[in-house]
Structures are given as structure tokens and as C-alpha cells.
Amino acid sequence: MHDASPTPLDAWLRRLEAAHPVGIDLGLERVAEVARRMGLLDGPVAGRLITVAGTNGKGSSVAMLDALARQHGLSTATYTSPHLVSYNERLCLDGRQADDATLIAGFEAVEAARLDGEPISLTYFEVGTLGALHAIRAFAPEVAILEVGLGGRLDAVNILDADVAVVTTIARDHAAFLGDDLEDIGREKAGIMRAGRPAVLGSRDLPTSVRATAESLSAPVHALGEAYGVERDGASWRWWDAAGQVFAGLPDPGLPLDNAATALTALQLAGVELDEEACRRALASVVLPGRMQWHGNWCLDVGHNPQAAAYVAGRLAERPVEGRTFALLGMLGDKDADGVIEALAPSIDAWLPVTLEGERARSADELAGRLEALGQEVVHREASPAHGAAWLEAHLAPEDRVLVCGSFFTVGEVLASWASRAQTDSDDWPIEGTT
After folding, report:
1. Model confidence over 71-120: pLDDT tens digits?
2. CA dihedral 91, 95, 97, 102 (to 10 degrees)
3. Are 303 and 405 in contact (CB under 8 A)?
């Protein structure tokens, strides 16, 4: 989703997309060698480094860690993937997206290093990760928070040794690379842990392989429900830890509370003395586009596996409406469409499937077939998320609502189409404020 007039950053991204024979090539040998040439392995890139792995909840955990650290007066850097609208979203320095010049300088540094000696081929994600680490090292934040792209053990982010390793949740996703066995998936995700350094387990329902990996490394285990926990208290909640510390009356950030508690614990284990009022300010202000993001009566969520979909369905059930709830659904072909549909179905009245671009995408017709086979009502189908959103805008009753879901690509295209219309035709802007 680039502007009509390509920028130098656009040109770099197109080049990177075509540079490696496959899009995903798990393994650390190539990327670690380029990192060594860049000097990224010679010392810490930040004062404290927190790495976050898991199937769901990584993005929200990173966002809350960042907000919490900055409210405690610390400088921060975050690296996440994928992006919704702009590549710049992937790297943020003190909460601000990196500018094009910073990203390009990172790409240029990676390119010079990979050609310094025997040329080394890198994937789009590997170049992006090394470029981001180059920028983070130059910025020298007090806390850097890195989201693992896929898996953990063999992901490019894992070339660095984290001071605190976080595993949020484990579910089936990316089966072509990680398999279907939850114990194996857990073992891969736990590969970000380091000997003797804290491991934060952010779910009460993790495969035994996650804890076993930590114990094999003598990494202190801090598990949700044991070393720390969450207790709801009406509209607010409280966080507690095993040392007897309790923060009560915390605001609901609109993101999973398990992940909020995990973020508090991980920051504490990174050596930050938590201040209760700073935590309140952070949780009240944190924003994460594409995760239960409300614009009027539209909700946008990038969840693309059954576990994430079940969470969304539960949150929708907490906010009943007088009208009907429509789901604008677009998914990639390697995702469990049936599982997502079945998880969302209790909270959805009717569906509008859309086609995504690219070889991996499912067509609207294929999704419609899956929906109808599962007994769901399909009101319409469209060739793109933007067209689907426009159709719904024209047909919704005032009391209806819409869930945009199924993929980063689905949510990103709708957000981009709204932003474009807001700039060119603000009088016809149909979506009112974020809640």
C-alpha cells in the first residue's frame, strides 16, 4: 500500500522483496554472520533488552511494555512486524515511527555488510531486522523491546541475547514452518530464553515444553497465575506479584489483561522499579492499531487464528448492540479459516468475505464457500477489503456494527482507504472517532 509516487523507501522495499529466493528462510547462520560484520554482536544495542515471542499477544505486550517504560521516564525502541499501512510502523523510537531516512540508513548498512566478503543472501524480514537493530544501537535506548517474527529459536531477532524473554501464548499457526504439535511449537518459541535470565510465561495454558526449556537453562520462571497475576475488579483490575506487591484500580487498556500483567512483570524483571501511578497513566494511554480498535461502530482486529478469534468474539459479546453485527473477512490461504469462522460465529450475524492480493490469499468466493458450508449467512462478497468496507457503509443500519478481521492485510487496507478518503474528501468521512 504505497503512494502513487514511489519514494526511495518504496524502492528499497521492492528490492528487498525480490532479493531472496524464498520469503521465509528460518535459520540464524546467514543473518548472524551479517550481524557480526555490522558489529551488532560486539555489545548491547540497548541498556536492557526484552524479547517477546508467542502466537498471539505479542503486539499488545510490546505496545504496553513501551508505554510503561516511557511513563517511567525511560527512552525506548520497539521493533514489530508486520505493519498495517506503513513499513515505518515496524520501528519506533521513543514511541515515534522511524522516518524514511533512518530506515534507509539501516538498509544501506546491511547491504554493505552482506557484500563485505562472500555475499550473503538475506530475506526481507532479515534485512529489516538487522536494519532496525542498526538504528536501535545508534539511538541507544534505555529499553529495547523486540517482537519475534515467526517461531523464536530460528527467528532473526534471536541473534541477540535478551535480558528478559517473554512467551505470551501458544497456539497453532504457521503450520508449514512450525508444525501442528503444540509441544514442538512451544519449544521453538521458548528458544528466545537465555541461561540464568528471567523467562516470563504469559499464559496459564502453555505447553509443558516452554517451562521445560526454561528449566533446562536454569532461567528463572515467572509464570502467570504463580509469580504474578490478574484480578478483575469491575471496570478496573489489579496486578499482583509473588513478593506481595499489588497495584489496584488499574484502567482497562482495551487489550488483553493477561498481556498487560505480563508487561508489568517483564519490565519489573528488567530492573525497573514500578510506580503505580506511572502504570495507570501508561495503561490509560496505550493505543495499538488493529487490535480491538474501535472507530464508531466499526471494530478492527488483525487476529487470524482461532485463539485470537475467540478472544475477539468474547470482547464483542461484552458489547451487545441493538442491530446486527457484520464481519468483513479476508484471510490468507495458509490460515485456519474454518477455525476462525467457528470461533467468531457466536458473535457474528452475517458475513462479507473479500479477496486479498497475492499468491497466499484466499478469494472471496472460496471464503464464501467455507462460510456457507458452516451454516453462516453471506450477505455479499467483494474483490478487496476497501470495496467491502464501502459496500457495508452503504448498507448498514445506524444500529449495526462491523468487525473487520482475518489478516493484517484486511485491516491495513481498510485503514489505508479511510485515511485516503479523510485526506481527499473529509466532508464525506463516514467513520467517527476512535473509542
Report:
1. 999 999 999 999 999 999 999 999 999 999 999 999 999 999 999 999 99
2. -70
3. yes
Distance CA 95, CA 66 (A): 7
Whether 59 contacts 288, CB under 8 Å: yes
Q: Is the pTM of this model over 0.90?
A: yes
CA dist list (Å): 212 to 142, 147, 203, 260, 322? 31, 22, 15, 24, 48
Angle of helix 337-344 relative to helix 306-317, nearest 10 degrees, comes to 20
Query: What is the grid cell recorded at 57?
Result: 499477544
Three cell numbers, residue 317 = 459479546
Q: Read off the pLDDT of residues 120-158 as tens digits, 9 standing for 90 and up.
A: 999 999 999 999 999 999 999 999 999 998 889 999 999
5 to each of 1, 8, 133, 225, 347, how far by Cα in Å? 12, 10, 28, 52, 41
Q: How far apart are alpha carbons 75 and 96 in whole angstroms?
A: 11
Separation of alpha carbons 100 and 32, rounded Å: 25
Element (H, E) at 341: helix 337-344
> What are 295's strand-pairing partners?
298, 434
Distance CA 2, CA 9 (A): 10
